[in-house]
Amino acid sequence: MKAKHQRLVLAVVALVALIGAGLLAASALKDEAAYFYAPYDVKTKGVEPGKAIRLGGMVVKGSLKRASDGVTIRFDVTDGKSTVPASFKGITPDLFREGSGVVAEGAFDAAGTFQATNLLAKHDERYMPRELEGMSYDEKTHKMKVDR
Amino acid sequence: MIAEAGLAALWLAASLALLQLALAAIGLAGGKSDLLGAVRPVAVAQGVLTALAFALLITLFLRSDMSVLLVASNSHSMKPWLYKFAGTWGNHEGSMLLWVTVMGVAGSAVALFERALRRDTHMATLGGQAAISLGFYAFLLFASNPFARIDPPAPDGQGLNPLLQDPGLAFHPPTLYLGYVGLSVAFSFAVGALLTRQVDAAFARAMRPWVLGAWILLTLGITAGSYWAYYELGWGGWWFWDPVENASLMPWLAATALLHSVTVLATRDALRAWTVMLAVIAFSMSMVGTFLVRSGILTSVHAFAVDPERGTFILALLGIYIGGALALFGWRVGAVREGAPFELVSRETMLVVNNLLLSVILGLVLVGTLYPLLTEAFGHKVSVGAPYFDRIAGPVALVLMIAMVLGPLTRWRRDRMREVTRRITVPMVAAGLVFLALAVFAWGRIGILPFLGLVIALAVAVGSVAPLWKRNLWRTPLFTWGMVIAHLGCAVSLAGMACDSAFTVEKLVAARPGDRVETAGWTLRFRQILPIAGDNWTALQADMEASRGGGKPVLIHPQSRFFASPPTTTTEAALLTRWDGQLYVVLGQEADEGRWQLRVWWKPFVTLIWFGGFLIALGGALALVGRERRGWLLKWRARKAAENAA
User: Which of A25, A89, A127 is closest, CB to CB, to B368?
Assistant: First the structure.
């Protein structure tokens, strides 16, 4: 094979590989990308049980309960307009508490409870999951404020 | 005065970078040799000045000078000195200063030690390095001045993010940055060679040690970072596919591809344009990574304080440098002559396969990392995590590992299929045996990817040492040893990853002092909870005895630590390392009535992941020393011969 042909073949092979990778990525992203939902989105758009999503909002005050095994918690997540029940088994992040923001990764079960596999809370005073930017909780009125 | 001196050094270094660029450009364009002669000293002086500025910033941190804004907002006088020192780069401005310091020092190193490159290409390379440095000096001086003062001085600092208060901070970021920014040298080489039309085997031999050096440090940095995150975050995972991690993985993937293609170019004078392209891509990925990390545009568990304006600035730099380099490539690639052709069955082909697969993985990771940005533009908030990356990057990586068995056992230029098949018989048989063993003992209990991972890991392990077969081990060149050990490291690491995801046992309980927790052959006796205090933290510490199979109990102490400044709680996992795995215990919160949450993992052979990483870096180091030593020997012999002739 001549050098010039070889270069052409290599370029074509590289192109095919990259296009193939792009298609592969697109199909995988369609299945695996987890969309972010606030409780109000869940109510209006609906989420099928078992589909991996991220649910974000504030933990409703007074809703946090521990199961008798000591490691399962149940709590409600609200965005001020709607509220969704959630459940999580594991060690909660240090800054996870009632009235503070949370992003939960997981899926809804058939009963409509969000089964969280992972909780992302505010990391420290300076950091907050981006999805929660613009949400705040009013301590006095116990109301969520959302400016988006 | 120290802060002002630091700022002055930085301005001076930036001016020298401008001078360096101008001298190189005018000298090369006008063929003025006297101007070119000044480029090297200027490059060295520029590197020295950035290093000085960085040393002065370290001094400010060590002295806890609270009249400097950066120190006041990121340090604290009560912090142990190691974290005052390492805290210098535990923030945005400091880490960007580290970035330009590495860039300046790398430029000086190229000016001082590069001997193999033709003079005009050498000067063009230094000009290119100065051009990139200038943009980052501008970023530092106009958008992230680390030496800004505050008046009046703060009474004390706000402290460093406690997750960063770990010895890992002293080692991981500098190593990573040396590798990350070291790739700028490869970028400048590519730019220089395109400008002077000198893309050939000699150019590749000159570039190779710099690529190798950066790649070794990048490998070490990623390995160390992975272990740090593993023990510090307390989640029991070693890779989260977080944007910040992907930001370090993408340059590594590109650099690994470059490392192999530069070898093809150096040995066989093939893949000329492709190698230059990869050199451009590798450093572009470093810049993309910096943009992702520093702009805060993506959500990350490795949180950094962020500022959107800075993001725009880095985006502009990205556009200028990547766009400029690609334009130069497009303009000059026609002038790069075709290299030597090769047959279909040859090591060149295998290395092309290696490069293609690494590029595909790089593309997949890049798409997954940037996808949330894309969808957010259309109003959807999306996160792309482990399910995506594992599903698509995993299988491609396994195919790449298979190519890794074939490559070193195939001859350069031309080989015969039958011969190659014969040489891979032993690795194939080894893989077959593992396959059978796993099929009998673990079928249906472990996932398909870990299953294939273990099979392929053994094939690679056997295949990687096969090039030493029937060779005199003493006379085998050091760089061949390097390849063998680096590939073996990949196998070891892959085996660790597969074992971790296949065999990890996890237990989550609420226990009170006096209770026993049993899992995976281990017995944990929970003795008590005690409050303790360190330099700048207090903690609740659990005292536990861990024993296995009636052996002698070992005391372990998982903690939940509270830092006052800034107010944060961190979990300090207790790790117990044995030859066959690690016991990982995390103390959670008090559940109720004196019961404490405990999370216990037994992770068989998980340490192989990082051990493999170190082997890969060691292999790189052996290859580097081997190549350089051969260069010295050849020169020495040539000189001897010349003396004898005279």
Answer: A25
